[in-house]
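Entry 12.
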Amino acid sequence: MPIDFRSHDTTAKSLSPADRQKYAVQKAELIRARAEQSAADEQLNRFFWQCFEDDDEDEGDDQ
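Predicted 3D structure (tokens):
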């Protein structure tokens, strides 16, 4: 069964352009590997958290 990326695609809209490119690469790799939905969800959620945490750290530097 193909992976449903709809929620991940929606989340990716909030990423920086560079992170959106990284997301597209990860998404392509998951499709190519025919990953299970749960594995794809776990990997992409980890990726999104890392992106958003990095953004929060960058914003903290401005204060």
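Annotation: The chain has a mean pLDDT of 91. The radius of gyration is 13 Å.
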